[in-house]
Amino acid sequence: MIESRYLKDNIENIQKLMQIPALRHFEVRSLSRLLRLSKIREYDDGEFIIRDGDEDTWLYFLLGGSVRIEKNGHEISTIHKMGEIFGEMRLIDKRARSADVVAAGTAVCLAVDTSAKNHMAGEEGSDAQMDFLLLLYKIFAEYLSARLRLANEELVKAKEETETLKKGPDVKK
User: Fold this and answer.
1) What does the buried/exposed string (b/e) look like for 86-117 if buried means 16 or more CB atoms within 10 Å of the residue's CB?
2) Which residues contact 129 (CB under 8 A, 6 or more apart)?
């Protein structure tokens, strides 16, 4: 992994963050705050970004490339759209990471150190911090909802395939 230093909250970096669909609704001051908690990380093909069971506090936005989400050696999903989030479940439920995330080719991510969010408390008052956190959790909820819908579709498909297999080879399609 190649990792930058924590990012500076200059206008150029804020404009780059505004290109990430999930962050377009953030106010400039919130993006500035997010930048100060963030690093750019580049991973090589096959390199682990997150390991199942880890308890780190990093949240990731995919900036380029793609990543595979795997559990027990099985691919669960592939993330390849710029701005997609991963690593958010640990931040919501405070449990260990529930899957591996592996770079599929070169992957570039914005890594946000959420353990540092408590250092923001006195920066602009508790209302500004609360607004920032509420917006972040709204983004989490939108992504989790989309992923749950996909999981439901895949579950129904798997159940239909199982039923077909149970009926045996004599069933006409």
Assistant:
1) bbbbbbeeeeebebbbbbbeebbbbbbbbeeb
2) 117, 120, 121, 123
Could you give the CA distance from residue 101 to residue 108 in angstroms, rounded to a whole number? 13
Whole-model pTM? 0.80
What is the residue extent of each domain of the chain? 2-115
Class of domain 2-115: mainly beta
Q: What is the pLDDT of residues 29-54, one digit of tens each?
A: 888 888 888 999 999 999 999 999 99
pLDDT in tens, 95-132: 999 999 999 999 999 999 988 655 554 555 667 677 77
